[in-house]
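Hi all, posting the design record for the shared folder.

TITLE: backbone redesign
STEP: 1 of 1
STRUCTURE INPUT:
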């Protein structure tokens, strides 16, 4: 990153594109704060992990509609219980019509049940780990998830953090375009450690200087560039199931 990117200019551009400051404000989610994660049950954390894993590469609305069946098939995602299930339980899931029958992703749920149960035993709940993780070290948290969990790297890890309630930025196509336009030296895919550090550096500076949460900063970036959906369309799609799987969704 060369110098400090000017977030005021990014915000002004987003306001102009969305019909003014108040219109933009309506599109920014309120954050409950990372501390609320400490009280999140472990089975809801494993459920969120699993949903994001199954959504990867699929149309999200298909997975969302089938999710009640997933909850039943995976025994409400209780990590301690799933971690003890024998091979036969997992083999049967490969032919269970209530879920999307993807062998590698089913195996990821099994591995992540062990992961969540282990951390929960150490910390008194997986949510406590998330709540205690510094908000300016999202990249470190993503690395931890990718290294210790299963299929939690890349965009899946970012979306897991956002959906579970951690204050996260999303490096979607539009957000990356905004960062590059602001002068942040980052590639199109932003998968290298150098790229991720550059993104973290920019968002950490903006968070300290401007006040909005990382989630809000990310959303403003996304709305400042790329295809210019009107505010009403974004609000409708934010609260509906019209989500794309490629990182260009309305939850950026």
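Okay, here is what came back for every position:
SEQUENCE:
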């Amino acid at each position: 990153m060369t110098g400090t990117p000017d977030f005021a200019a990014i915000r002004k551009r987003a306001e102009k594109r969305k019909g003014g400051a108040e219109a933009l404000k309506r599109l920014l989610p309120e954050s409950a704060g990372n501390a609320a994660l400490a009280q999140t049950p472990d089975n809801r954390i494993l459920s969120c992990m699993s949903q994001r894993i199954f959504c990867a590469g699929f149309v999200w609305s298909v997975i969302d509609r089938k999710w009640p069946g997933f909850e039943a098939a995976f025994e409400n995602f209780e990590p301690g219980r799933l971690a003890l299930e024998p091979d036969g339980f997992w083999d049967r899931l490969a032919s269970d019509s209530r879920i999307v029958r993807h062998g590698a992703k089913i195996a990821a749920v099994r591995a992540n049940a062990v992961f969540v149960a282990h951390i929960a035993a150490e910390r008194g709940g997986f949510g406590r780990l998330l709540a205690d993780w510094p908000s300016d070290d999202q990249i470190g948290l993503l690395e931890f998830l990718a290294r210790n969990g299963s299929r939690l790297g890349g965009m899946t890890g970012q979306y897991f953090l956002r959906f579970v309630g951690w204050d996260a930025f999303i490096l979607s196509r539009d957000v990356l375009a905004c960062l590059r336009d602001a002068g942040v030296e980052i590639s199109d895919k932003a998968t290298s450690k150098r790229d991720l550090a550059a993104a973290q550096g920019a968002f950490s500076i903006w968070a300290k200087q401007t006040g909005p949460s990382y989630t809000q900063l990310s959303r403003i970036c996304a709305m400042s560039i790329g295809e210019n959906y009107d505010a009403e369309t974004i609000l409708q799609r934010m609260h509906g199931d019209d989500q794309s799987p490629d990182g260009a969704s309305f939850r950026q």
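COMMENT: The CA atoms of residues 139 and 193 lie 9 Å apart.
Let me know if anyone wants the other runs.
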